[in-house]
Design brief:
The structure holds two protein chains of two kinds. Chain A contains nine helices and two strands; from the N terminus they run αααβααααβαα. Chain A has one domain. By secondary structure, chain A is mainly alpha-helical. Chain A is globular and about 45 Å long. By secondary structure, chain B is mostly helical. Chain B is globular. In chain B, strands 1-2 form a two-stranded antiparallel ribbon. Chain B is 63% helix and 2% strand. The chains are: A mainly alpha, B mainly alpha. Chains A and B meet through α1, α2, α3, β1 and α4 of A and α1, α2, α4, α5 and α6 of B.
């Protein structure tokens, strides 16, 4: 097996768009299954009544991380050919802080508002148009933002690079962190929502 | 579960049936993780959402004001070479899939309904106002961070990118910090 298949030329660009459609269908399907088509379910994360945003995200991260790690360890996946988003540390932290406010206020993130809109949630549709307006505003003001946007570039910079630890050990530590997080999440839910009744 | 009822046309419809409960978050997380892993293995890239909307915005601006769009380095990054269609793009096709996949799952579980998601203490208009403004703030944040919960937190997070983890921690920290001020919208 020579993976990533696309990077090794197993199929061309047109076929990749079909792949995109199917990957998207899988993504949207599990977002809806998880309850992420509902702003109340998503917002419950920030009031400790239902911590499924954290759980779903971290299980997904651990699953994909371990899968990529094992496949590359078995020599089936060329890990260096998988795109890692470049780090621009300061604008990414600031962007995250801004994003968090939008999350609690709007109730969705860019992917989940699509699912919400597709399943009839009017606030999801409105959120989607708000997001498009925000991106347009960013684009129009880009000449003022560009300096900050491109600051602190660090390229392909990963946690093993930062912590100066072997890759496998970092993966193991992330798994431990996630397991501790899940245990904490279960306890928090029992404390803040003892009946288990979730505002649905 | 409520009884199916007859409409004027005598058709039995079951949209009054209780929607089925959501999947276990752990199981849904495994499903999501396997989709992400499939993207790594098949494409050598991850998932995304905000990038697709940026392609829509860039294409829209180019349609209305081509010279203006071409003079902006941010738009041109999403427009590609002149003459190419900016919507013939991997993330654009993926986000169309996201909407289809969400609809399929919602239909199978009886969760498709016209509704505004909100707590009991806020009016529909206020909620929609917050959804629009919050969506706008989120759009700006996702561009500053070069991605959102999909492209950074999930995709970059599983690839252990430092910027993605910093973004993710910042999102949770800020959302918890301001949650108190928006409690009337949700609780």
């Amino acid at each position: 097996m020579n993976a990533p298949f696309y990077k090794f030329g197993l199929f061309g660009e047109d076929a990749s768009l079909l792949v995109a459609l199917f990957i998207g269908i899988g993504f949207g399907f599990f977002l809806e299954r998880a309850g992420f088509g509902s702003a109340r379910k998503l917002a419950a994360q920030f009031y400790f009544t239902d911590l499924r945003v954290f759980k779903v995200m971290f299980v997904a991260i651990v699953t994909a991380m371990l899968g990529a790690f094992w496949l590359s360890w078995l020599g089936l996946l060329d890990y260096t050919q998988v795109t890692v988003p470049s780090t621009y540390l300061v604008p990414q932290i600031f962007g995250g802080l801004v994003f968090g406010v939008g999350f609690v206020m709007g109730g969705y993130c860019p992917g989940t508002c699509c699912v919400a809109a597709a399943t009839g949630r009017l606030d999801g549709v409105v959120h989607l148009f708000g997001m498009i307006s925000g991106i347009l505003l960013f684009g129009e003001l880009y000449s003022f933002i560009e300096g900050f946007y491109t600051s602190t570039p660090m390229g392909r910079f990963t946690l093993p690079d930062l912590l100066q630890l072997p890759f496998g050990l970092t993966v193991f530590l992330v798994v431990l962190l996630a397991l501790a997080g899940f245990a904490a999440a279960e306890r928090l839910e029992k404390k803040f929502n003892p009946s288990g009744e979730i505002p649905s | 579960m409520s009884e199916p009822f007859a409409t004027d046309h005598g058709v039995i419809v079951s949209d009054r049936a209780e929607p089925r409960p959501y999947m276990s978050p752990y199981l849904a997380g495994v499903g999501l993780g396997l989709v992400l892993l499939a993207a790594y293995v098949v494409m050598g890239r991850g998932l995304g959402a905000s990038g697709a909307f940026t392609s829509f915005v860039a294409a829209g601006v180019e349609t209305v004001a081509p010279a203006h769009a071409r003079s902006n380095a941010f738009y041109t990054e999403y427009l590609g070479d002149p003459g190419t269609n900016p919507l013939k793009n991997w993330l654009v096709f993926e986000i169309i899939g996201v909407a289809i996949g969400g609809l399929i799952s919602g239909m199978l579980a009886g969760r498709v309904r016209k509704e505004v998601e909100k707590g009991p203490r806020i009016s529909v208009n206020k909620r929609l106002f917050f959804a629009f403004v919050g969506g706008g703030i989120m759009g700006i944040g996702s561009k500053l961070a070069r991605g959102c919960t999909s492209g950074q937190a999930l995709t970059g997070g599983a690839m252990l990118s430092v910027g993605s983890w910093a973004f993710m921690i910042a999102v949770f920290a800020s959302a918890y910090a301001v949650a108190y001020f928006f409690r009337r919208q949700w609780l």
